[in-house]
Amino acid sequence: MKILTEHIDVPNIDTIDVFMKHGGYSAVKKAIKKMTPDEVTEEVKKSGLRGRGGAGFPVGMKWSFLAKPEGVPRYLVCNADESEPGTFKDHYLMWKSPHTLIEGMIVSSFALGANTSYIYVRGELMYVINILEKAIQEAYDKGLLGKNILGSGYDLDLFVQPGGGAYICGEETALLESLEGKRGNPRNKPPFPAVKGLWQCPTVVNNVESIAATSWIVNNGGDAYAAIGVGRSTGTKLISASGHIKKPGVYEIPLGITVEDFIYSDEWCGGIRDGHKLKAVVAGGSSVPILPAELILTTAAGEKRLMTYESLSDGGFISGTMLGSGGFVVMDETACIVHNTLTFAKFYHHESCGQCSPCREGTGWMDKVLNRIEHGQGRKEDIDLLVDVAKKIEGNTICPLGDAASWPVAAAIRHFRDEFEWHIEHPELATKPGAVFMRKGASWTK
Amino acid sequence: MKVTIDNITLEVEPGTTIMQAARMIGPEVAPPAMCYYEPLKGSGGKCRACLVKVTAGSEKDPRPMPKLVPACITAVQDGMIVENTVNEDVLETRKGIVEFLLLNHPLDCPVCDQAGECHLQDFSFEHGVSSTRTVEERNTFEPTDLGPNIQLNMNRCILCYRCVYTADQITDGRVHGVMHRGDHAEISTYIEKAIDNDFSGNVIDVCPVGALTDKTYRFKSRVWFSKPVDAHCECEKCSGKATIWYKGDEVIRVTGRKNMWGEVTDFICNGCRFDKKKTSDWVIEGPTNVSRHSVISANKYGANLIKPAFPVLQAARDYKQINDDRDRSFLGIQPALPKSKKK
Ligand SMILES: Cc1cc2nc3c(=O)[nH]c(=O)nc-3n(C[C@H](O)[C@H](O)[C@H](O)COP(=O)(O)O)c2cc1C
Ligand code: SF4
Ligand code: SF4
Ligand code: FES
């Protein structure tokens, strides 16, 4: 079942004529001509679509929270900052099929009553920005954007804004600051963007994939979307698969397939590269807890783990993880967990905006301690120190970057403590190039 | 609206923050504030020193809040119950905040002009622990001048943004801000441009630490050897209300007047601050009211205001707490005394 990527390999699908030949922009016509904004919102609510940017908050519900005071403009902002290590799905979608996003932007803006909308794109993706600009121009030329769209009286202007190259600008309030031309520091909440967002006006911020999915929902109905998936995980999800698998890439999966299927079936990742075994998976982008092979394939209760929000988080942070933004990083037994954790810690140290003291200082501290451990200068007490520093950051910061920085460290130690100990106790072995700890009797299979 | 903080209930206006309500009760229950500065619009929420536990959100919705909340920017709800000094979680988290703020702090108090009136010293004395867990090298920056009268020592900065809000408030074209991110962020006046504004000196007063200091006062005296006196002058630019600091007969420094929370509510101009260094420039009102707990009051207004027994007892207590089991093996020194065996 493909919703977003059905036509993605059609040649020239990035041009509006080819896109329309394959049914593109039918949702705009249907929504604007035959539906009211509230009806669109209602379908999105029925679909059960959840935010694809990481937190998984129901999109329809978020829309219904939008304040609608008289005479105040409202905005829709598409979060295309995608900078989470391991996640590269929005990039792929916008690059291959920009009109899929633009169609969703028009439908969603209509539902929210926004007359100006923005796509905030990660600054490094200049070529994608050019693709989007060209596609937007085509939509203007066809009367799908601008004044009086399709003669309906509804006006919408759509702008693309390149970011400045900061992961933190993916956090929605930092994004809004940046969009306003300021330093991208996250805001204190409340007030939430739904009440005071862009230029202090009510604003909805949604991920590329969330917005793109709304066109299909308008065309086929919320119930049809909700029929795909399991429980509260409805529809399809783009997964960016990378690491030691045979077929890395972006896959659109129906939510609800098993993790095992996703890793080993030829339809998706195609299994672990030859001669190697699965050791660990980071299932939802660098921010989510890493899980060892045995816990990613089955839950602690012994059930098969599914690619759904609920199943992946089964067991909480003790034995579970999160679907997050769908950055699925697979590691085989040659991967060093300490090294990997250090890489993530370095990233968060580099990307913390530095506003609040726990995150600013804590991310740097964890980076430095992990760096010592990696380079054979770890001390016995460092492991507990890391756990404590992570604990003191978590929940005490302005934005969730603090949590995102502490979870990977805490989880790596939770599940691979022996590997950290080995680094500290045997620096002479651990610092040899390519040396990796092997757990005795490790159950890493296949 | 009714709010209860540390088991003390009071009535406040809607819109009051937890911090403001706690300050109405008094310093014993007021959470520490390292970034919040009431006169500066937009300040607060950053340092996380003021995190408190809300055990009941409001009368209507008495559920506890899941996370600790910053007292300085959280508005009270009717019937809210807040725990500050009586909550273990809060105190433990606060220890962590002290530790974070000191992590890259140079601890160069012996050569820092702020020592003695430094909020970070007070904060770590009251809420921190006496040992350190870090062995990492500290981040360092070169000191820079912001114009002729102000020095920035970025090593000491805790990125509270108070000076940034001050600059925002006093100037139209903002030139003073923050560059870079994270623990490598720097206060800057973009392209080294001096803040040539008549009120720029106020950034010195709002700075909780010794990151922004007065160059005309540099190394003139330890603050506890000088004597603050309230005074005013005729000034076209500002209210002229200041505190002037004497060492002997000499005026060595002029600052704004600080209230009991260390906040200046009346900004003074650079003329008053940097140039009026003669008694004849001022009309003296009388000695500044200094808290008797402050080191500034030491050796000044009569004997025995600080009970000598107290610091001795405190030092003795803290001495016992010093963690002497720290691993010094990397120094290559043998312990001088064999450890006594526990029975
Ligand atoms: C540090 C940080 C980075 C984030 N980066 C992104 C991002 O690149 N793209 C994204 O869609 N959401 C990102 N988010 C989540 C957004 O804050 C926000 O929740 C999301 O855009 C909402 O859209 P959704 O409800 O459609 O998922 C990030 C959050 C944090 C805390
Ligand atoms: S948690 Fe980190 S990134 Fe988020 S506001 Fe605080 S310092 Fe900035
Ligand atoms: S220089 Fe001082 S006032 Fe400015 S951010 Fe740093 S600590 Fe705060
Ligand atoms: S004083 Fe409240 S966060 Fe700094």
From TrEMBL, chain B:
Residues 1-88 form the 2Fe-2S ferredoxin-type domain. Pfam families: Fer2_4, Fer4_Nqo3, NADH-G_4Fe-4S_3. It comes from the Bacteria. The keyword Secreted does not apply. SUPFAM superfamilies: 2Fe-2S ferredoxin-like, 4Fe-4S ferredoxins. Keywords: 4Fe-4S, Iron, Iron-sulfur, Metal-binding. Gene3D superfamilies: 3.10.20.740, 3.30.70.20. SMART domains: NADH-G_4Fe-4S_3. Residues 89-128 form the 4Fe-4S His(Cys)3-ligated-type domain. This is 2Fe-2S iron-sulfur cluster-binding protein. It comes from Aquirufa novilacunae.
